[in-house]
Amino acid sequence: MMGAFVTSPMLTVQPSRGLVDEKFQVVVKNLPPRQEVTLHSLHQSERSDFWEAFGHYVSDGKGTVTVAEDARAGGSYQGTEPMGLLWSMKPVPGSRTGLRLRKKDVRTPMVVQISVYRGHISHGFRETPALACAVAERWYMAPGVRRVDIEEKGVRGTLFLPPGPGPFPGVLDLWGGGGGLVEYRSALLASQGYVSMALEYMTPKIMEKFTLKEYHYFEAGFAILRDHPQVCSDRVAVLGLSFGTTVALTMAVCSPLIKPRCLVCFSGSHQLPVEEPLSDVLNWINKNRDKVQFDEEKRVISRYLLLPIPSDPSKKVKVGKIQCPLLFIVGEDDQSWPVSEMAEDIEKMMKEAGNSHLLTTVSYPGAGHLIEPPYTPHFSSSIIVSATTKEKAVMLWGGETKAHSHAQEHSWQRTLAFLEQHLYSSGDKSDRSNL
């Protein structure tokens, strides 16, 4: 039997304004003891699509629900999950297919409304009156972080500068085959004390002009970051995701001008036509579509494009020549690239070359391809537009939501620890207290 509300329920979210990689506390008080309630989160994206998650809870003997401590009794996530109302978000029923939630304008927050409803409900949230509501702002840019457009030496990108005079370590941020200028990870890295530059390179104009063997564009981008007056020139890392991993590994091995202090590589490969023009690389993928498979929903499974791994060393980046620490992040259910097999081959090649002591591999069961900053939604599939042909396809990225979300949280912590270990000396760590 439903309890009677003597006083109005009170819902709080603390902090109500924080960074995307920060946890928050959601607490509901002034409920009747043992009251069944539903907590619901709702976000409207920059493309006007709505995303939601919900959890069923029962208040304790004092009429309180504490999301960080209480196990939910049903909903879009399982168990005791402090951030489940964020990472389990999905498009509301009736939404367009193939959606992916990505922040375009990092100067504004992701605004999430969290509401509490009487009883255990799973739909009809818009039509049902809420008992109480609160709003949380999730930011990629911390207060004082500056965003600077970069267009020089033929290079296009965005530079993010932490507050304070510096100098700071730098991170060159390379995204993958989806193309465009993706800024949100760089903004978050700057919020953690790094001058980070998101480099745009997956555009037809750039891809037709440069090859991975003639890497002047990347050398120019690296130099812009390295030579910035607020950057420690000898403490610059390169971070790559997906095809950005191939670029990062190739640059570290082949370019005499790109000497990163360390590398962080997510969900990537050391095997592609690494000496071909960038545009030809994607054309090569299109020409090998016979190796592409589809699941029962006609979603593209592209991991078989790169299998079996060739024995010919000319078809792979010579990772045995890497001279800096490398953190390699693997999702074991990646359906885009065969990253588990790639990780094994990279380790084998580096062992044979005698530099395997530089390699740290972190592998996550149940994680897919798009391992992004923590507490952001998991996408098992989404629409992707080819940077060369402009064709659309629904790609299967893989991953199970809870396991993938754990991978996002843990791999971000490992990434920050790895960057701090190799880019900050013990004497510099005290400087971060000003951030």
Describe the 3D structure:
This protein is α/β, with parallel strands linked by helices and 435 residues long. The protein has 2 domains: 10-139, Acyl-CoA thioester hydrolase/BAAT N-terminal domain (Immunoglobulin-like), CATH 2.60.40; 146-434, Alpha/Beta hydrolase fold, catalytic domain (Rossmann fold). It has helices spanning 84-87, 184-191, 204-209, 216-226, 243-254, 278-287, 339-353, 401-423, and strands at residues 10-14, 17-19, 25-29, 36-44, 50-58, 65-66, 74-75, 90-91, 110-118, 132-139, 146-152, 155-161, 168-174, 195-199, 231-241, 262-266, 293-294, 300-301, 326-331, 359-364, 381-385, 392-396. Strands 11-12-14-13-15-16-19-20 form an 8-stranded mixed sheet, with helices on both faces. Strands 2, 4, 5, 7, 8, 9 and 10 form a 7-stranded mixed sheet that branches. A hairpin with a 2-residue loop joins strand 11 and strand 12 (155-161). The model is unreliable at 429-435 (pLDDT under 50).
Question: Could you outline the blueprint of secondary structure elements for this entry?
Answer:
Blueprint: E1 10-14, E2 17-19, E3 25-29, E4 36-44, E5 50-58, E6 65-66, E7 74-75, H1 84-87, E8 90-91, E9 110-118, E10 132-139, E11 146-152, E12 155-161, E13 168-174, H2 184-191, E14 195-199, H3 204-209, H4 216-226, E15 231-241, H5 243-254, E16 262-266, H6 278-287, E17 293-294, E18 300-301, E19 326-331, H7 339-353, E20 359-364, E21 381-385, E22 392-396, H8 401-423
Family: Belongs to the C/M/P thioester hydrolase family.
Domain BAAT/Acyl-CoA thioester hydrolase C-terminal: 216-424
Active site: 242 (charge relay system), 334 (charge relay system), 369 (charge relay system)
